[in-house]
């Protein structure tokens, strides 16, 4: 036994177990993806505020599907990251893609292909492109987390036939 002022006994500082102190790559990747997804959720909150502001400035009625998408996806995404809940991250990914991308895609279609672009439409176009980009990115990272947590099988695994 070593004294408090003397040398430390060999093997008690943990250096002899350094070969076992490796964390699996999926456990290293999960916190990184969660941090990115948390930042994207915060950006989605700002996009929601921007959507409401643009609607108030231009006297438009905000798209009910877009607002509903934010009301469903943001709380589901935030709580799924805290609890590692596959069901909630699945709800977040689906609602973020379906209720966030498609209404803005329809907005782009209406403004770009059904007539000319007025001066107040520029804000709506910027909003639509921003929201589509953020929601696509968030859906991608939600899919990656679902694969990591075991919610959906990854595409890199080969399908072997059973005999």
TrEMBL record:
Q: Which PANTHER family match?
A: PROTEIN JAGUNAL HOMOLOG 1
Lipid bilayer topology: Multi-pass membrane protein
Q: Which organism is it from?
A: Amphimedon queenslandica
Query: Where is it located?
Result: Endoplasmic reticulum membrane
Q: Which domain of life is it from?
A: Eukaryota
* Annotated GO CC locations: endoplasmic reticulum membrane
Q: Write the record's keywords in alphabetical order, separated by commas.
A: Endoplasmic reticulum, Membrane, Transmembrane, Transmembrane helix
Which one GO biological process term can you cite for this protein? vesicle-mediated transport
Q: Which residues cross the membrane?
A: 36-57, 63-81, 88-109, 121-142
Q: What is this protein called?
A: Uncharacterized protein
Q: Which Pfam families match?
A: Jagunal (PF07086)
**Which family does the record assign?**
Belongs to the jagunal family.
Give a yes or no for keyword 4Fe-4S in this entry.
no
């Amino acid at each position: 036994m070593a004294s408090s002022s003397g040398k430390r006994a060999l093997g008690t500082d943990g250096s002899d177990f350094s070969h076992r102190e490796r964390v699996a790559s999926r456990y290293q990747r999960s916190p990184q993806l969660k941090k990115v997804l948390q930042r994207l959720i915060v950006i989605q909150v700002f996009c929601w505020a921007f959507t409401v502001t643009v609607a108030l400035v231009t006297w438009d009625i905000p798209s009910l599907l877009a607002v509903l998408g934010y009301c469903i996806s943001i709380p589901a995404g935030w709580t799924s990251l805290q609890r590692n809940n596959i069901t909630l991250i699945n709800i977040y990914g689906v609602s973020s893609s379906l209720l966030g991308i498609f209404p803005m895609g329809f907005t782009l279609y209406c403004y770009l292909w059904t007539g000319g672009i007025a001066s107040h439409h520029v804000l709506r176009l910027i909003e639509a492109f921003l929201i589509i980009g953020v929601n696509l990115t968030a859906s991608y990272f939600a899919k990656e987390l679902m694969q990591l947590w075991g919610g959906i099988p990854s595409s890199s695994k080969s399908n072997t036939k059973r005999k």
